[in-house]
Amino acid sequence: MVQPQTSHPVRSTALACLIALLFFLGIAPTLNWIEFTGGMETNVVIAGIEAERDGNWLVPTQNGEPRTRKPPLAHWTTGIGLELWPGSREFAARWPSLLCACAMLVACYSLGKTLEDETTGLLAALVCGSTILFLQFSRQASYDVQLAFWVACATAFLARAVVARQWMLGCCGAGVALGLAMLTKGPVALVQTVLPVLTFAVVARALRGTDVKSDSVTTGRPRVTLAVVCGVVLMLIIALPWPVYVMTRQPGLVEEWSRQVTLAGERKAGETSPLLAYLLFVPLLMPWTAWFIAGVVRAHFRHGPEANRRLLFAWMCVIVPIVIMNFVPVRRTRYLLPMLAPAAVLAAAGLRLHLREWGSTQTAHRVMTGLHWFCAALVAVGLPVAGAVGVSGVRRVDGTPWYSAGEAVVFGAGALVVLTAGFLSTRRYKAAFVVAPALVMVALQAFFILGYRHSPSGVCEERRLVDRVLTRYPEALFYNGHPDSRDVPLPVSIYGNRVLKRAPDMRTITPSADHAQVVFCPADTPVPVGFTRIDSERFGKIDWAAYLLTK
């Protein structure tokens, strides 16, 4: 096995932090380019707003009702972001999740350093931050983004324990990270960390291919046991108090949490996903997909004296959770985020081997080099072309393409110039082989957002209706008049900056001398006498209307 290189640990760690900072600075200016348009993000944001505005920190709320379906950590961090940034609400709510995503790059570096060396760790950080999957979701205020960070930290610490044999540091660090991960999205974090590591231990022992002597665990069993116990205790100290507290005050939560973990609610509603939906993980690693495959190959086959079974650890952390999650019929792309860090390490390992053999005339080496630049160019040019042509899903609200021909040509040409400069620079600087595609991907995400914000899914119709209502009635009280007690789309609460009280029977609303009272409900809802329609707007496929109580 190639021994890890640790000649400049401080410098390499500083470089990893610099990489994370640069990705943060590259993405942060675009956070307020898109409004809150629905989805899981709005659940996190509204709970964060009510924590910051109304002081509902211990038990976060959604429109004044307890939001206990999910653990509270993502709500807390979002509320802190709103507290610390009084400007743009979109930026304020999203920057904590982006910070977590970029901090995940440092954890990715640590994992790569433990499994191979510092160079692999730095490559992994660059690869992770410039994948389509990272750039798509890192900008969202999301449970899954923050979960991915804590899972990456736990994975890096577990690698310290199991691979580097730093048992106390690894187990205690993993215990803290897992406690925070469970406080973010519950016990799913164990499926994404502990289960893959146990699988690795079993497989590695069966293959007898690790760099660890077979008796190393046995001879240090008391020390290992103590470390594991300390880790478990730390995890429980962090993860248990909040759920125990809310369970004592809200009956039926265990059953509700069980439905959340198993997605039973979605299954009951008939929501399913294609069986092979998670295969999308591979193209979402573009432009590094070929290197990920090369890393997987390295994890399964020996290369003479450079055999590295440590990569099997990373592969188990990718494949085991995906296989387990595939048994749940609801498969969403964002669920793949916690597997991104170990996947980036595998891709970096493929790149590392390629760079070690730099200048090789072997056909396979030349093919991989050509494939590398082709994938980068394909992604860089593909978006401008699709946006200029106006293919399905890449059109504005009015049906026109995202970009003009001139905009597409300028960006596409600029991206190709950067890639060409990177290609030519590799003769002197091998780092350009990785840096040039990463720079193009960061620019590409900003260019994507410039177009996406004009698409039907990027425009918040709810905000338009709320703004028109508040222009006429700035101090109005808002009510949810949906007849079957379903929620009004949450952007109404976010942009109205007030709680929507439930009023399925609109006749129960009593007049107020101090405030206008506005009820939001589907436009076809029967409205009792005494209400006057103010305005209406189509939210997705449903027409919604705002009514004013007049008497």
Secondary structure: elements and pairs:
Elements: H1 9-27, H2 40-54, E1 61-62, E2 65-66, H3 73-84, H4 89-115, H5 118-129, H6 132-137, H7 143-162, H8 167-185, H9 188-192, H10 194-207, H11 216-219, H12 221-239, H13 241-247, H14 253-262, H15 264-268, H16 289-300, H17 311-325, H18 340-356, H19 363-389, H20 405-425, H21 432-452, H22 461-472, E3 477-480, H23 491-496, E4 500-502, E5 517-522, E6 531-539, E7 542-549
Parallel strand pairs: 3-4, 3-5
Antiparallel strand pairs: 1-2, 5-7, 6-7
Helix pairs in contact: 1-4, 1-5, 2-3, 3-4, 4-5, 4-7, 4-18, 5-18, 7-8, 8-12, 10-17, 16-17, 16-18, 17-18, 19-20, 19-21, 20-21
Description:
By secondary structure, the protein is α/β, with parallel strands linked by helices. It folds into three domains: 9-356, no CATH class; 363-458; 461-549. Helices cover 59% and strands 6% of the residues. The protein has 23 helices and seven strands. It has helices spanning 9-27, 40-54, 73-84, 89-115, 118-129, 132-137, 143-162, 167-185, 188-192, 194-207, 216-219, 221-239, 241-247, 253-262, 264-268, 289-300, 311-325, 340-356, 363-389, 405-425, 432-452, 461-472, 491-496, and strands at residues 61-62, 65-66, 477-480, 500-502, 517-522, 531-539, 542-549. The protein has a five-stranded mixed β-sheet with strand order 4-3-5-7-6. Helix 4 (89-115) packs parallel to helix 7 and helix 10 packs across helix 17. The longest helix has 27 residues, at 89-115. It is globular and about 85 Å long. Mean pLDDT is 88; it is low at 1-6, 209-219 and 303-307.
